[in-house]
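Hi there. Long-time user, first ticket. I'm pasting a complex I've been working with (about 446 residues overall). I'd like to know whether the download I got is complete or cut off, because the file seemed smaller than I expected. Thanks.
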Amino acid sequence: MKINLPKEVKKAIALLEAKGFVAYVVGGCVRDSVMGKEPADWDITTSAKPEQTAQSFKDYRTIETGIKHGTLTVLIDQMPLEITTFRIDGRYSDQRRPDSVSFTQDLKLDLSRRDFTVNALAYSPRTGLVDEFDGLGDIKNKVIRCVGQPDARFQEDALRILRALRFASVLDFEIEKSTAQSLFKNRALLDKISAERIQIELIKLLAGPAVERVLLYFRQVLFQIIPELSASDGFDQQDTEKHIFTVYEHIAHAVSRVKNEPHLRMAMLLHDVGKPSTFKLDENGRGSFPDHAAAGAEIALSVLKGLKFSKRFTSDVVKLVRYHDLKAFEEPHTLHRLLVRHGQAFMRDYLQIKRADLLSLSPQMAQKAKKIDELEVALNELIASDPCLELADLKLKGKDLLTLGLPPGVKVGQTLDFLFELVIDGKLENDKKALLEEAKKIIKAK
Ligand code: ATP
Ligand code: MG
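Hi, the file is complete. Here it is re-exported in full:
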């Protein structure tokens, strides 16, 4: 098998080899190349010790990324390459990270510390593919399988439990039976993993094409990191006209339907987290969830804080959860008002999550998603029309009111506010003449 390496990568490998070391590309980039996908970045593994790598690349810009763990980032013709010494991880006494690492001259030992067979492939132009654990067979069969004993590997580093789900979602692979059994069994170990590490894998998991299947099949693992979602599992919404899914199934479906952006996927995952605690049967015996969006926003805030998401990401997601039930699509005349209140970015996101939400209800409800398309057209037209979004955009100013004979004072502001409200409700054009006419009427009536 031949893999086309970028010239910068070939250069780095050739340079290390010229110094008498061996070097390979390894991990995700080999997996992706074998699968015919363009790797996002290229990692190199080498027999050179960190100081020998540094010495070899002394004429290049280098960044000491994780020198303790043997990693040096080298910039070759603008391309950053992570070069890591062959390494064996020490014990993971805290289930988080190796207490120590030791370096080795043996590629096989380096490959055996890696998490899954599909990630334990190495390649160099000189040697070709090095595949000690039949990663190639697992790629062909679309299988995620631990390198070595699953229990031992998950107990060493429980983040791998979530990584298995992430790769299953992103690559659309199955998790091999004994690996799957073991990750279910060991899932409580995820409690010891730092929020920062969980966050990264969770976001990647949510972006995968097989996210729905993974969220449904491995829900118990997800509930380990977001226990707040477990109440929605199997929760019957008791309204068959609207809902054909339980709350959690609806959530999983909606996540897979929404545009693939981290904050939208996360908003979908959390949008109905407030449903179980707000459930009521109405007088017709139908389920309803009064104010579940407000309750959900509170829960979402605590989930995202707990997982240490950035303030910006957290507030964007919480706002979407809070307002995911805006009735804009039932009341299109409120669009301008909503745009003023929430801003353009939010309104665009709102339409995305509302569409995904509707498409994950009953077939009758899914019909309504067409209205979202109409609303999207209307929003685009509105934005293109240079709309009045704040008082300063109003084509009538305070001094215009004074020329109409209104004395300076609070009434000026009140009249402008009133006119602004008329404009954003679509009852009056933002046109100086029309505004003056209306202002005259108001002043006269006072
Ligand atoms: P991506 O395309 O998302 O970068 P990747 O496979 O490169 O996927 P990384 O998280 O960048 O994933 O890790 C690079 C490689 O390091 C993996 O392919 C794997 O060989 C190894 N690796 C990463 N994290 C672990 C871990 N927790 N345990 C064992 N091996 C790991
Ligand atoms: Mg990578």
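A couple of notes from our side: The pocket of magnesium ion (ligand 2) is lined by residues 28, 41 (CB under 6 Å). DSSP finds 23 helices and 13 strands in the chain.
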